[in-house]
Task: inverse folding
């Protein structure tokens, strides 16, 4: 009944809009997966995590939304932007730090996070669309300095012994909280896309050997488009087209496992990360990436995400360095 009420409300709103709402006539029985369903926008609890000093930027808000069983979810994700160490900028339009190449970056000033006192110092170069939180052996190394836009890149250092684990929370931020969308390409409700690429000075690179699991998928307008096979959560049959009215969109949420970032966490049943090309992610006009491309694709790294780089908005990544 709650979903029906929301749908009727959205239809009433649509009467004053320039186009009809996308079809959201699914019943809950159309969804056979393991996630929790919410419908409609979230309540904003943080208006903006970050103020960009220079240029236009999207607002990085945080919201809460209830699913149909009464559970409350933070969207686009629980995060530690306000409490964790901020990674050093490699390039940041918002602060005006715009080096043309790596020689203009003072790598010696990058703080070293100690994981193992007798370990080796590793340098990591990271570009995330939009936001990352990096853990080494469960130790928080740093978070992205810009949650949403403008696009930036980061450099981190940590001291660790091999073998070690890398765990990353990546978030494709959203303007329309709880709906997985933003104003883009002529539509008020257009799904954004993600992407994460990194290389490390010990030769570690992002590729299909990593593992990736999604924990928040939106927007979904037809619950029947979602499929699960084992641990693989598929939304490839769902539309990724922008909508003029997307207020009735569904979202699917999964609980993140306890201690997912810990060195001892077993992610062996997670799906392999899906790789994406530079052209799919769309980085040819982003100086934060292109000015340091030799540390990304030039180092052999690939963009990775879960199976849907458009609709999957919170993804956990893991990799074991041997």
Result:
């Amino acid at each position: 009944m709650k979903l029906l009420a929301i749908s009727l409300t959205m239809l009433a709103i649509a009467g004053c809009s320039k186009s009809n709402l996308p079809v959201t006539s699914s019943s809950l029985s159309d969804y056979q997966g393991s996630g929790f369903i919410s419908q409609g926008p979230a309540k904003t609890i943080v208006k903006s995590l970050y103020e960009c000093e220079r240029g236009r930027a999207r607002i990085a808000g945080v919201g809460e939304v209830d699913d149909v069983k009464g559970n409350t979810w933070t969207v686009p994700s629980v995060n530690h932007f306000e409490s964790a160490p901020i990674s050093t900028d490699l390039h940041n339009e918002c602060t005006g730090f715009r080096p043309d190449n790596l020689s203009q970056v003072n790598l010696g000033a990058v703080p070293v996070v100690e994981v193992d006192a007798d370990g080796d110092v590793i340098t990591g170069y990271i570009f995330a669309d939009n936001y990352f939180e990096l853990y080494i052996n469960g130790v928080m190394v740093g978070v992205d300095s810009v949650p949403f836009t403008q696009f930036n890149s980061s450099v981190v250092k940590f001291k660790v012994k091999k073998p070690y684990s890398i765990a990353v929370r990546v978030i494709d931020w959203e303007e329309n909280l709880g709906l997985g969308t933003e104003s883009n390409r002529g539509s008020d409700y257009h799904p954004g896309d993600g992407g994460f690429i990194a290389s490390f000075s010990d030769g570690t690179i992002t590729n299909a050997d990593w593992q990736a699991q999604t924990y928040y998928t939106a927007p979904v307008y037809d619950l029947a488009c979602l499929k699960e096979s084992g641990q693989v959560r598929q939304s490839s049959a769902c539309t990724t087209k922008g909508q003029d009215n997307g207020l009735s969109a569904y979202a699917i949420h999964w609980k993140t496992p306890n201690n997912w970032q810990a060195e001892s966490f077993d992610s062996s049943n997670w799906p392999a990360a899906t790789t994406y090309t530079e052209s799919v992610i769309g980085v040819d006009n982003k100086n934060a990436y292109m000015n340091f491309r030799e540390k990304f694709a030039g180092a052999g790294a690939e963009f990775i995400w879960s199976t849907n780089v458009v609709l999957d908005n919170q993804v956990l990544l893991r990799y074991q360095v041997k």
Observations:
- The chain has one domain: 2-321.
